[in-house]
Design a protein that fits this description.
Distance between the termini: 18 Å
Largest sheet: none
Number of strands: 0
Helix content: over 70%
Number of helices: 4
Structural class: mainly alpha
Length: 150
């Protein structure tokens, strides 16, 4: 295991615990305000989810930076190569779908996302599909990079 990786794991778990405590306190505070008419419960949910999403993304970036600093140069090169070539190839595959979605014939396609068919649900589904394609490309190139050097 890479030197210093246990420190990254420990700090990550501690950060996750802190996030859960913060979310609990925030939920109680917004629940109190919602119960006393300061805001609606829908507004409270939006605020809590916004705070959660922002903190998760900040934490993810921090863990990624700390992890990249803890691995050796070969592993760093494998991941950079995999993200560039694999992620780009996956995005190119997804890009075909993005381009084809501009055709008039694409209007006939209906995908239900959790029973929803509104534009926000379609946007989220498209973003997740693009991410999955990029991750698939990344995984293939990462494996190829290491197998080529064995």
């Amino acid at each position: 295991m890479a030197k210093g990786l246990w420190g990254v794991i420990g700090k990550s778990l501690l950060g996750l615990l802190g996030l859960l405590v913060l979310l609990f306190v925030t939920g109680v505070a917004f629940g109190y305000m919602s119960a006393h008419g300061v805001m609606t419960s829908d507004d409270a949910v939006v605020w809590i989810m916004t705070i959660f999403a922002v903190l998760i993304m900040i934490g993810s970036l921090w863990v990624g930076v700390a992890w990249m600093r803890s691995i050796d140069e070969a592993a760093r090169e494998a991941h950079k190569t995999a993200w560039y070539w694999g992620g780009t190839a996956g995005m190119a595959v997804g890009g075909v779908g993005v381009i084809l979605s501009g055709l008039d014939q694409a209007e006939a396609l209906r995908f239900a996302v959790s029973g929803r068919t509104d534009p926000a649900a379609y946007m989220a589904a498209g973003a997740m599909l693009m991410l999955l394609l990029m991750l698939a490309g990344y995984t293939i190139v990462w494996a190829w990079w290491w197998l080529a050097r064995r």
